[in-house]
Backbone:
C-alpha cells in the first residue's frame, strides 16, 4: 500500500524522463555493440585480412566497455 | 574438358604487379590499394588462387564522418548552456554524457568497419567485389577473369581530382546483375584509389587470359 502511495505521489520531472531515455539508449547501444562483434567476426570470415584479429578485438573491447558503462548508468 | 587458361603460370606475367612489387609500392594493408597482400584470403578462394590486388575506398572518402565525429566530440562541452539541460540533475547529466560518447565511439567503429571490409579483390582467376551495407546486409559479386569484356573508370569532382580516386566499372560477358539495385553494374568499384593503375592491371590480366586462350585454340 505504501509503495502505491509512493508511486502516486511521485513527481515526473524532466530529469526522470531523460534518465529513463538515457538508460534505454545505453541498453540499445549494448545490443548494437554485440551485433557489431558478431558482424566483425562474419566480415573477417568473408575477407580474411592480417589485422582482422585486431579489429575483432577492438569491437570486443567496445562491447566489454559498453557492458561496464551500461551497468554504471543503470545503477546511477 | 579443355583447360581455358592456367592461372598458376599467368600470375608471374602481369607486368604492372611485378613492377610495383619490385618498387615496394602499395604494400600497407591499411592502404586503399594493396599489391600482392600477404596473409589475405577470402571465403570462396581456391587453393591455387592468389590475391594480386586488394583495394577499398580511398581514405579521403572518410573525411565526412571523421569531421562529424570531431564536431560531436565537443558537443557535451557546450550543452550545459541550454536551459533544458541545466534543469537536469548531476547524475542524469553524467549518464547523458556517457551515452553520448558511447554512441560516438559506436559510430566511429561502425564506419571504420564498413570502410575496412568493403573491398574489391583481384586474383589471378577472378574478380571479387565485397559490399557490406550497414551491419546486417552483405553483397558479394564474383566473376572469372576470362568473362571480363570491358573495363573503364571515371573521376568526378574536386576531391577525386586532388586525391586521385575514381569509380572503376567492369563489364562482364554475362551482364551479371547485382542484388544491390543502386549499382548499375555488378562490378562497380566505388572511389578506388589510383583507378588508372587498377584499370591497367585488370586489362593486362585480361590480355594474358586472351593470349593463353588463343594459344590453346
Residues:
Amino acid at each position: 500500500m505504501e509503495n502505491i502511495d509512493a508511486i502516486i505521489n511521485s513527481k515526473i520531472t524532466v530529469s526522470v524522463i531523460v534518465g529513463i531515455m538515457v538508460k534505454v539508449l545505453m541498453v540499445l547501444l549494448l545490443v548494437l555493440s554485440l551485433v557489431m562483434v558478431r558482424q566483425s567476426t562474419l566480415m573477417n570470415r568473408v575477407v580474411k585480412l592480417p589485422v582482422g584479429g585486431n579489429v575483432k578485438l577492438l569491437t570486443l573491447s567496445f562491447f566489454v566497455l559498453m557492458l561496464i558503462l551500461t551497468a554504471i548508468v543503470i545503477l546511477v | 574438358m579443355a583447360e581455358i587458361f592456367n592461372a598458376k603460370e599467368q600470375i608471374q606475367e602481369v607486368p604492372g604487379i611485378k613492377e610495383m612489387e619490385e618498387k615496394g609500392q602499395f604494400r600497407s594493408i591499411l592502404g586503399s590499394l594493396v599489391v600482392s597482400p600477404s596473409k589475405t584470403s577470402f571465403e570462396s578462394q581456391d587453393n591455387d588462387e592468389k590475391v594480386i590486388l586488394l583495394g577499398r575506398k580511398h581514405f579521403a572518402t572518410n573525411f565526412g564522418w571523421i569531421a562529424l565525429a570531431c564536431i560531436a566530440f565537443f558537443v557535451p562541452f557546450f550543452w550545459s548552456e541550454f536551459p533544458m539541460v541545466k534543469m537536469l540533475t548531476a547524475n542524469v547529466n553524467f549518464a547523458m554524457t556517457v551515452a553520448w560518447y558511447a554512441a560516438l565511439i559506436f559510430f566511429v567503429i561502425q564506419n571504420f568497419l564498413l570502410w575496412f571490409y568493403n573491398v574489391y579483390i583481384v586474383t589471378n582467376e577472378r574478380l571479387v567485389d565485397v559490399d557490406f551495407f550497414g551491419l546486417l546486409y552483405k553483397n558479394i559479386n564474383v566473376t572469372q577473369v576470362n568473362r571480363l569484356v570491358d573495363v573503364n573508370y571515371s573521376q568526378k569532382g574536386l576531391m577525386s581530382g586532388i586525391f586521385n580516386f575514381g569509380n572503376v566499372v567492369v563489364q562482364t560477358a554475362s551482364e551479371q546483375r547485382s542484388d544491390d539495385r543502386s549499382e548499375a553494374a555488378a562490378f562497380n568499384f566505388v572511389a578506388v584509389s589510383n583507378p588508372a593503375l587498377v584499370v591497367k592491371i585488370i586489362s593486362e590480366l585480361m590480355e594474358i587470359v586472351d593470349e593463353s586462350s588463343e594459344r590453346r585454340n
Chain B has seven helices and nine strands. The interface with chain A takes residues 29-30, 37-43, 84, 87-89, 91-92, 94-96, 98-99, 102-103, 105-106, 109-110, 113, 116-117, 119, 121, 130, 132, 135-136, 138, 140 of chain B (CB under 8 Å). The domain at 7-57+120-216 of chain B is CATH 2.30.29 (PH-domain like). Chain B has a mean pLDDT of 83.
